[in-house]
Design a protein that fits this description.
Strand content: 15-25%
Number of helices: 12
Shape: globular
Number of domains: 2
CATH superfamily of the largest domain: Enolpyruvate transferase domain
Structural class: alpha/beta
Length: 420
């Protein structure tokens, strides 16, 4: 089988001003909230990518009307009263779609089977299924291994349930989405340290925008009164901060300057804080009326807890490979359960480039130096492709295999990359 590849051409100091597509995280949540509402909602600057298309297709199967025109989506909600679905709901490699829609399926009166790619069917779901069962939902893992395919037969009653918080914040978000529609409401207790906390804040922001009320005690307890209704509305989606990180990283690595026009430091997206990480590495961040600007400088190694922005660990690792000194990344244990085992794949690809890199129990140790070019395998993981593409702006001979994997979250990535 022919494998496509793309060679990255090094560039001198990059200077660019970019307006980016909408956030994948916001688009998922807005699509689902609009489908859970009654009436018509209009979502603007929505991200049309593989993952969000899979969510939209599933919601159509469940009976919601979705008309997608470029970056504008009209959603006709059905109040969570899902239609029967005779076929399996296929969700590709989208972990967000699988976890959220497993919970949403509990609102229906039919039996639903949700499945996906081989890698998705290796990703854990057991804790979410156990939490749903405590709320009256009949659901189980088809192969009894805590992974997809999953069967959901409805029965959501509500009540109290628990999550450890250690594996995925998506479990919490999934329960938050259905809690307001449970007859008895839902109370969620987090028994440990919740990973990826900003994504829960983002979910709560979207719930509030669609008319849902809730109570919280930090990240330990969430209460959602039952009998609520999602309100249809017009909703504008801001730029994707995860996508912005690659262009800020390009400025950092080349000593250039990149401004993203449609993001602010007020964003609930945790990945906006990557600017602060880059500042610790020796760069300069500017908050201006025209947007958020990153100016590169000589990079130095850092010690960082990345539990709040785990998707950007590969990007930080690439920058660390070119920085002066040692970089220690912590708070990333749960990256082993992403599209690839991101701790292992990052180390493998950095070593191809002559970089000293080690896996730790919950992160990475990377000694900066002078990496050389290499053919980078992407493991069907969009974030590996995009982060190592940044390395090629500084290092000659970087070739990205299967560059089309970026379609999962940022189909226009290479077009924007060429603008640099």
């Amino acid at each position: 089988m022919m494998v496509s590849s793309r060679e990255i051409i090094p560039k001198d100091k990059i200077v660019a001003v970019l307006t980016l597509p909408g956030s994948k995280s916001y688009t998922h949540r807005a699509l689902m909230s609009a489908a859970l509402a009654e009436g018509e909602s209009l979502l603007t600057n929505a991200l049309r990518a593989e993952d969000t298309e899979l969510t939209a297709q599933a919601l159509r199967l469940l009976g919601a009307g979705i008309d997608w025109q470029r970056n504008v989506v009209t959603v006709r909600g059905v109040g969570g009263r899902w239609a029967p679905v005779s076929e399996a709901i296929y969700l590709g490699n989208s972990g967000t779609s699988m976890r959220f829609l497993t919970a949403l399926a509990a609102l229906g009166q039919d039996c639903y089977r949700l499945t996906g790619s081989q890698r998705l069917c290796e990703r854990p779901m057991g804790e979410l299924l156990d939490a749903l069962k405590k709320l009256g939902v009949e659901c189980y893992s088809e192969h009894n291994n805590g992974c997809p395919p999953v069967i959901v037969q409805g029965g959501l009653r509500g009540g109290r349930t628990q999550l450890s918080g250690a594996v995925s914040s998506q479990y919490v978000s999934a329960l938050l989405l259905i809690g307001p529609l449970a007859p008895e409401g839902v109370e969620i207790e987090i028994t440990g340290e919740l990973v990826s906390r900003p994504y829960v804040d983002l979910t709560l922001e979207v719930l509030k925008a669609f008319g849902i009320s809730y109570e919280r005690e930090g990240y330990r307890r969430f209460r959602l009164p039952g009998g609520q209704r999602y309100q249809s509305r017009e909703y504008a989606i801001e730029a994707d901060a995860s996508s912005a990180s690659y262009f800020w990283a390009a400025a950092a690595l080349t000593g250039g300057r990149v401004t993203i026009t449609n993001l602010s430091m007020d964003s609930a997206q945790g990945d906006v804080d990557f600017l602060s990480v880059l500042a610790h590495m020796g760069c300069h961040m500017r908050v201006r009326p025209e947007g958020l600007t990153l100016e590169g400088g000589p990079l130095k190694g850092v010690r960082m807890d990345m539990s709040g922005m785990p998707d950007l660990v590969p990007t930080l690792a690439v920058l660390a490979a070119c920085a002066d000194g040692l970089t220690v990344i912590r708070g990333a244990r749960h990256l082993r359960h992403k599209e690839s085992d991101r701790l292992a794949t990052v180390v493998a690809e950095l070593r191809k480039m002559g970089v000293e890199a080690l896996e730790a129990a919950d992160g990475l140790l990377i000694k900066g130096g002078a990496p050389h070019g290499a053919v980078i395998d992407t493991y069907q993981d969009h974030r590996i492709a995009m982060s190592f593409a940044v390395a090629g702006l500084k290092i000659p001979g970087v070739i990205i295999r299967n560059p089309e994997v970026v379609n999962k979250s940022f189909p226009d990535f290479w077009e924007y990359f060429e603008r640099l």
